[in-house]
Amino acid sequence: xxxxxxxxxxxxxxxxxxxxxxxxxxxxxxxxxxxxxxxxxxxxxxxxxxxxxxxxxxxxxxxxxxxxxxxxxxxxxxxxxxxxxxxxxxxxxxxxxxxxxxxxxxxxxxxxxxxxxxxxxxxxxxxxxxxxxxxxxxxxxxxxxxxxxxxxxxxxxxxxxxxxxxxxxxxxxxxxxxxxxxxxxxxxxxxxxxxxxxxxxxxxxxxxxxxxxxxxxxxxxxx
Length: 223
Ligand SMILES: Cc1ncc(C[n+]2csc(CCOP(=O)(O)OP(=O)(O)O)c2C)c(N)n1
Fold this sequence. Notes:
Elements: H1 6-14, H2 23-40, E1 53-56, H3 63-71, H4 112-125, E2 132-137, H5 144-155, E3 161-167, H6 179-184, E4 189-194, H7 198-206, E5 214-219
Parallel strand pairs: 1-2, 2-3, 3-5, 4-5
Helix pairs in contact: 1-3, 2-3, 2-7, 4-5
The structure holds thiamine diphosphate.
Protein name: Thiamine pyrophosphate-dependent enzyme
InterPro entries: THDP-binding, Transketolase_N
Pfam families: Transketolase_N (PF00456)
């Protein structure tokens, strides 16, 4: 484990060139990822079986994710300089077979939440006390696969499932009554937090939600 701080993350991210198109997708996730890995998630590079799981579903623009993994000792910070290069393990979409600490390969949107539901169910069935966190984008929520997963997770009361939607207001469709309502009607606990305020994010990540899966909307404002 390194002793890197949040301030170091910007330096780590600036060493990754070559994906300017997705830089905003990365910067909007930086604060939520940092608070999660620094204050909440029980996971170390040893990847114990009872670790908490984190799935980055919004796989485009993974620079913030790689920077946080480097800051927390999963990957060598020097590797960041080869981000996106030929044969670099740090591709423009994360590959679980190549990057230590990465639980799912992602890039095709709409798969992380269904995978997280299955993982949380499996862990619960085996009596393993792990939480499962998944980060998705507000635009990504339009994918229909998410809505089957939201309905199912609510019905089976997956209390150890936590969804972070980073809302940078890029969604094309929107939801009647707001994004939180879409989850609440399925039995979820839902809260919106300032996606740049670390203490507010931590409070939202830690608030009790007995018997129900949890949604935290990390609102980063219009980009
Ligand atoms: C299944 C699928 N359809 C379309 C895309 C193309 N795509 C890449 S990023 C993106 C927008 C995602 O928006 P959002 O989830 O809000 O993330 P942001 O880029 O705003 O951070 C789309 C549609 C994809 N990667 N996967």
